[in-house]
Amino acid sequence: MSSARDTLLARVKAALAPLPERAPLPDWERELVVMREARGAVDAWTLFSARLAGVNGTPLTSVAELIALLTKSDWRRGYCDPALWAELRPAFDAAGGFTVETTFDRARVDDYQFGITAAVGAIAETGTVVLSDAATSSRLAALAPWTHIAVLRRAQIHLDLPAAIAALPKDPNVVWCTGPSKTADVEGILIEGVHGPGIQVALLLG
Amino acid sequence: MALQQIDQFAAKLRPDTRAAVYDGSKKGHEKRTAVLFDHYPDPDHLRRLAGNIKQHVVENLDTLLPAAAAALERNGVKVHWASTAEEANAAVLAIMQARGAKKMVKAKTMVSEETHLADYLGKNGVECVETDLGEFIIQIDGDHPSHIVKPIIHKNRREIATSFEKHGLGAYNDDPQTITRRARAHLRRKYLEADVGLTGANFVTADTGRLVLVTNEGNSRFCLAATKCHIAMVGIEKLLPRETDLGLYLNLLARSGTGQQLTVYTEFISGPRSPAQPDGPEEMHVIFVDNGRTEALASECREILRCIRCGACLNVCPVYRQASGHAYRSVYPGPVGAVLSPLLAGERFPELADLPKASSLCGACNEVCPVNIPIPDLLLRLRARGKEAGAKNAAAGTPPMGAWSLLATQPFAWRTSLTAGHTLNYVPKSLIPVPPMQTWLRDRTLPAWRGGAFRKWMKDRAKK
Ligand code: SF4
Fold first, then answer.
1. In terms of CA atoms, which chain A residue is nearest residue B303?
2. What are the backbone angles phi and psi of residue B437, rounded to the nearest 5°?
3. ipTM of predicted assembly, 2 dp
4. Could you tell me if B292 and B343 are in contact, meaning their C-beta atoms sit under 8 angstroms apart?
5. What is the rounded CA–CA span in Å between residue B277 and residue A23?
6. Residue B448's domain spans which residues?
7. Does B188 fall in a domain?
8. pTM metric for this prediction
9. B129, pLDDT greater than 90
10. Euclidean distance between the first and the last CA atom of chain A, given in angstroms as a whole number
11. Which one of A2, A128, A170, A185 makes the best mutation probe of the B interface by having the most chain B beta carbons within 10 Å?
12. CATH number at A38-205
């Protein structure tokens, strides 16, 4: 296909040839785009949980809180990242009544009411959890169940968006999730849980 | 006098459609402004900066495009090049055929609207399902999007419920939540059955070769979690020089487009899935599409290629609010469309040469544009081009100015007519025998004639 490439690039070159000079590339300070609230924020988790709640997400700080949430809605069947399951299992077993699988079967996507996967990071000023191929055991398990629980560690939280950009992992699929999946396509009315989770939880463990 | 085509369309618009478009765009604009000014001390500074960086991109595509392609290839992406819509569609089909693929799920991409990809694939035996809720509804209705961010801004829930019923998506129910749940269940099966997921890209970083996609619904994520092959159709102007520039553009795009701080999903894609990851494409293709962009690049209006498709200029535009998107008869409506559509039309420029006239040049579009595109200036340049090209419909709706120019060049005649004009104050306006005047007067009242007042003021002032 090298000729298609050459044709297109030749057209670009020809279009730009008459320009006497080219616009320079300005530098900029990343503080410019840090929103007011994030400047001088004291605690990253406090800001993060406030912003996540602001987009109808659910910040939690213990497995007990998570089990209470799942029990309240009677969400009993789910998926958990095998590496995390070792850490979470004792609490789930103690509570009883949960069926949790550690492989996600795409033939039964609708059988899973929740999916628990690890996050690779978070952004405090936006209430965002960051997923990646390396950290997230299954793309589908983090997306298809009605409730997605992203497990987060305090040290992973970036204060602002430019910091998270600077720390983008070398990974083919990094996803920032900011609250539940949503649409306002029908008459501008907000509906949550379109194709992805209707409930987005960030669970802080350690 | 003939009305401009856009006015003819607007005149026939159903009142409830007009109201829906008006309210939707007005709300979008208000949210945008509130959020930007609440979050930042000087949003205008950010817009100018973003405009300058994008202008650099536009004027350096000859080096940035090869750089981006090389970065993508380093990441394991197969890069394709398409000068025309036909070539772009054919490239997609060729990739599908090579895989023996018959089914595609597709996220929202404006460039695929330009090339009519879904129709083309349908004719070639490939099922292509739109997965964005709005685009899905458009597809089952055989309709066209009327807004670049809110494709069904012109539809109400009753129309949607009716077409869902017609297409076997359950008995009539116009509750937006029910509509959304039914689409969720229906499209879920489509993702899992599909071989290929197609997306666009909001940005491509030239230094690191990452495609950035922003969505709220999660449909593009599903395309990239369920299918085995990812194809991205990308306009050649979508590049950013540095990954760090994303910090600026992601912040501006969400706030300008939907008044959100950040869209729900921001995806950074830089190649096929990792070997340890069970879900997602093993193969990734990027098709760089020209389709008229190099002509725009060579033109006096190349600033329009900075556009990041946020839709803010549509929302603020008084003409768009009255006329709705279909009035623009092209993929891109509103102020951005009035510039971009005629430019991308190539030889069909004369057909769309009236669009640059569908503006009062109030300048609101420029003021809200996150990349500070001087849209009113570009509209003027295109008006001139339309006139030079002698495009017939570019002249429709222009009042005859011959008599005025005659008077304005004869000082004595001018003074006389200013004085004589006072008689107009005693004549009922409905008797003025000028048809455009009558059209104008239907919705407005003419102020009293005060001809000569300024000259008198000047004279008195000179005396003092
Ligand atoms: S021209 Fe500017 S305001 Fe309009 S859609 Fe493009 S970026 Fe947004």
1. A23
2. -60, -40
3. 0.96
4. yes
5. 42
6. 402-463
7. yes
8. 0.90
9. yes
10. 52
11. A185
12. 3.40.50.10420
